[in-house]
Task: inverse folding
C-alpha cells in the first residue's frame, strides 16, 4: 500500500448495524493457565477465566463499567460467572473481539452448571467485532495483523498506551485497568468505525 492511510470498505456501515443500540455491552476476559490444575474438573494447561471487564452503553449515551478479578486460591469460576451474569443482564447484545469470550463462556457453563442457562443466554447475545474490522477496515500500521492490540494504535491511539507494570503494590489495580481498557477500546473502536462508515 503506497499511502499510509486507513482504507474503509463500503460495507462497513451495514456490518456495524448489530453494534448500534442503546444497551450494548463490551466484554473481555483474562485467563490463567496452569500445568497442574488447581480447580476441580480442569485438565493441564486448560485456560480458566479469572478476570473480566464489562462496559455497557446506557440509553443516555454514557457507559457503566463492572470489573472482576479473582483473589485467593479458591475456584474463581463460580463467583466470576455470577458477577458476569449480573453485570450483563440488561444488555441487548454484548460485543467481543474474536471468539475467545464465547469459548470461555462455554467453559463456564460446564464449570458452573447452576448458572448454565444464564450463561447460555449471555452466549446468545454475543456479537464479534473482529470480522467487521478484518473485512472492512485496513491500515498499513496493522502490519498484517487484526488483533485488538495491533489495530488500536492506528485507529484509536489514545486507548492503546501500555499500562506500567513496575509498581508491585499496584499489580491488582493494573490488571483490572488492563482488562477494562480492552472493553473501553471496543467501545471507542465501534464509535470510530461508525465515524468511518458515516453511521449515526
Result:
Amino acid at each position: 500500500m503506497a499511502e499510509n492511510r486507513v482504507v474503509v470498505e463500503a460495507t462497513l456501515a451495514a456490518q456495524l448495524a448489530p453494534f448500534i443500540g442503546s444497551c450494548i455491552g463490551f466484554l473481555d476476559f483474562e485467563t490463567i493457565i496452569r500445568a497442574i490444575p488447581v480447580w476441580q474438573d480442569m485438565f493441564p494447561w486448560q485456560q480458566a477465566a479469572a478476570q473480566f471487564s464489562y462496559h455497557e452503553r446506557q440509553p443516555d449515551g454514557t457507559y457503566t463499567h463492572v470489573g472482576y478479578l479473582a483473589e485467593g486460591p479458591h475456584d474463581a469460576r463460580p463467583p466470576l460467572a455470577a458477577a458476569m451474569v449480573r453485570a450483563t443482564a440488561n444488555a441487548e447484545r454484548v460485543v467481543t473481539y474474536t471468539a475467545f469470550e464465547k469459548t470461555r463462556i462455554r467453559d463456564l457453563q460446564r464449570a458452573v452448571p447452576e448458572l448454565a442457562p444464564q450463561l447460555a443466554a449471555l452466549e446468545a447475545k454475543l456479537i464479534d467485532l473482529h470480522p467487521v474490522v478484518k473485512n472492512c477496515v485496513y491500515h498499513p500500521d496493522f502490519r498484517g495483523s487484526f488483533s485488538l492490540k495491533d489495530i488500536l494504535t492506528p485507529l484509536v491511539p489514545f486507548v492503546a498506551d501500555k499500562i506500567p507494570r513496575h509498581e508491585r503494590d499496584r499489580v491488582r489495580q493494573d490488571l483490572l485497568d488492563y482488562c477494562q481498557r480492552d472493553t473501553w477500546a471496543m467501545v471507542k473502536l465501534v464509535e470510530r468505525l461508525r465515524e468511518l462508515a458515516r453511521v449515526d
